[in-house]
Amino acid sequence: MRVHYDKYGNATSYHYGEGKIKSGNGAVSIQIKNEYDKRKLLVSRYYYTSKTRGDKVLSRIERFVYDKKPLVFSFKKGDLNF
Predict the structure, then answer these.
(1) Hey, which of 7, 29, 55, 68 has its CA 20 to 30 A from 16?
(2) Alpha-carbon distance 17 to 32, whole Å?
(3) DSSP β-bridge partners for residue 62
């Protein structure tokens, strides 16, 4: 399996080579389109699968939501030492 990453360290593609997966045609590729917000946080991922070159099918969408409010409590250094 080969994996490519973007500049933020998130995967952008997976390629399963011949003989690794029994899918009829052999190799399977997954392309991932990552979208980021202005804070450079990952907000959505679009997964496209293909068994042959040029035949892409949208197979999955992931969306991420981040809270804008900080936590109402926090631990001080050493609070969790037993």
Answers:
(1) 7
(2) 17
(3) 45
> Which tokens in the block code for residue 35?
């979208």
Q: What is the pLDDT of residues 2-13, one digit of tens each?
A: 999 999 999 999
- Which strand ranges, in their side-by-side order, compose the sheet holding 57-63? 2-5, 11-16, 28-36, 42-50, 57-63
pLDDT for 50-79, tens place per residue?
A: 866 667 899 999 999 988 887 777 777 777
Q: Where are the beta strands (DSSP E) in the chain?
A: 2-5, 11-16, 28-36, 42-50, 57-63
Q: Half-sphere exposure of 63 toward its Cβ, with a 13 Å CA cutoff?
A: 1
pTM confidence score: 0.68
- Whole-number Å distance between alpha carbons of 32 and 20: 20
